DNA sequence: AAAAGCAGCAACCGCCTAGAT
DNA sequence: TATCTAGGCGGTTGCTGCTTT
């Protein structure tokens, strides 16, 4: 598809998967489990590359996959998460049980992105006509100042970290609602569905369940050297009510942060600067 | 009825990161 | 510490079906 293959794929099938291939892959994974994708095709007798097998399984063959019929609630949630996270499709998908990043990405590119653009500049005929394919550019950091929607995006760097270490010697960064900390904090989330869970989130730092993306329920562990290990297992408990709270205005959300001393009293709610801080490289001490 | 345009979606690609050695 | 490998992610592409002309 326009690019040279990253590895030799001679003799491998490409394109759409057949029912037989699906059956073989499903049977193999049920018998042996996921993982070892590179060896899987050979072992399963499939003429596909491992990446293709993985994608097929994750996006279509998994038993818990929910396809099509994205509900209004889901749609609304996708929009809001996209505002906050940008094109972090896997993270967004992690909050929507049964949905895959690919599906959400496609849904955004074909449906929601258009709506968002139209809302951002409803009077712009030019914009409405720019819905043509490829005209829907994902919101990048550099684009983020160009639309009202995009300005809400907190661009994060795609780094992964399963734990965040906070030294008690220095105060934790002041402005960090846990789920927007950065990719270091929000990557590898426990994939907890945002739409179905209980309501037992303990408060943390004064946040209640209405805090955006469930800022509650951080498991904190005192480490041996006096630091605090914050497990990322922190967003398991957002209730449906708190999901609906996502419908609060962004202003309210960020005011809430400020009220909870997430922001310095004198600071402005400047998402650009927030985003700057969110770059994990800005605080190297936080990276391990 | 046929051709052109458009939209949706599945799949592929390169890049990046974490973990292993 | 450096290198290699596997897995994961987001961007992009091409196919296919539907709609419009």
From TrEMBL:
<keyword id="KW-0010">Activator</keyword>
<keyword id="KW-0805">Transcription regulation</keyword>
<dbReference type="GO" id="GO:0005634">
    <property type="term" value="C:nucleus"/>
</dbReference>
<feature type="region of interest" description="Disordered">
    <location>
        <begin position="169"/>
        <end position="208"/>
    </location>
</feature>
<keyword id="KW-0238">DNA-binding</keyword>
<feature type="domain" description="Myb-like">
    <location>
        <begin position="9"/>
        <end position="61"/>
    </location>
</feature>
<feature type="domain" description="Myb-like">
    <location>
        <begin position="62"/>
        <end position="112"/>
    </location>
</feature>
<keyword id="KW-0804">Transcription</keyword>
<dbReference type="GO" id="GO:0006355">
    <property type="term" value="P:regulation of DNA-templated transcription"/>
</dbReference>
<dbReference type="InterPro" id="IPR015495">
    <property type="entry name" value="Myb_TF_plants"/>
</dbReference>
<dbReference type="Pfam" id="PF00249">
    <property type="entry name" value="Myb_DNA-binding"/>
</dbReference>
<keyword id="KW-0677">Repeat</keyword>
<dbReference type="InterPro" id="IPR009057">
    <property type="entry name" value="Homeodomain-like_sf"/>
</dbReference>
<dbReference type="GO" id="GO:0030154">
    <property type="term" value="P:cell differentiation"/>
</dbReference>
<protein>
    <recommendedName>
        <fullName>Myb-related protein 123</fullName>
    </recommendedName>
</protein>
<dbReference type="InterPro" id="IPR017930">
    <property type="entry name" value="Myb_dom"/>
</dbReference>
<feature type="domain" description="HTH myb-type">
    <location>
        <begin position="9"/>
        <end position="61"/>
    </location>
</feature>
<dbReference type="GO" id="GO:0000976">
    <property type="term" value="F:transcription cis-regulatory region binding"/>
</dbReference>
<keyword id="KW-0539">Nucleus</keyword>
<feature type="domain" description="HTH myb-type">
    <location>
        <begin position="62"/>
        <end position="116"/>
    </location>
</feature>
<dbReference type="InterPro" id="IPR001005">
    <property type="entry name" value="SANT/Myb"/>
</dbReference>
């Amino acid at each position: 598809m326009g690019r040279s293959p990253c590895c030799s794929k001679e003799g491998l099938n490409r394109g759409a998967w057949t029912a037989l291939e699906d059956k073989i892959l499903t049977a193999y994974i049920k018998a042996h489990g996921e993982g070892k994708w590179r060896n899987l095709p050979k072992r399963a007798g499939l003429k596909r590359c491992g990446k293709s097998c993985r994608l097929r399984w994750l996006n279509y063959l998994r038993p818990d996959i929910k396809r099509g019929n994205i509900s209004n609630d889901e749609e609304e949630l996708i929009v809001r998460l996209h505002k906050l996270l940008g094109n972090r499709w896997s993270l967004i998908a992690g909050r929507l049980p049964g949905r895959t990043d690919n599906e959400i990405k496609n849904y955004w590119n074909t449906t929601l992105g258009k709506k968002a653009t139209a809302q951002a500049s409803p009077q712009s005929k030019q914009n409405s006509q720019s819905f043509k394919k490829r005209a829907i550019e994902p919101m990048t950091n550099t684009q983020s100042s160009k639309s009202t929607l995009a300005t809400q995006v907190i661009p994060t760097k795609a780094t992964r970290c399963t734990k965040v270490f906070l030294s008690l010697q220095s105060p934790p960064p002041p402005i960090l609602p846990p789920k927007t900390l950065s990719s270091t904090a929000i990557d590898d989330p426990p994939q907890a569905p945002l739409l179905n869970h209980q309501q037992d989130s303990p408060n943390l730092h004064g946040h209640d369940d209405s805090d955006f993306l469930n800022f509650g329920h951080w498991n904190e562990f005192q480490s041996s050297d006096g630091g605090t290990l914050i497990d990322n297992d922190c967003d398991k408990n957002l209730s449906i009510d708190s999901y609906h709270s996502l419908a609060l205005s962004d202003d309210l959300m960020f005011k809430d942060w400020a009220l909870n001393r997430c922001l310095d009293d004198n600071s402005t709610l400047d998402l650009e600067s927030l985003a700057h801080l969110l770059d994990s490289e800005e605080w190297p001490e936080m990276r391990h």
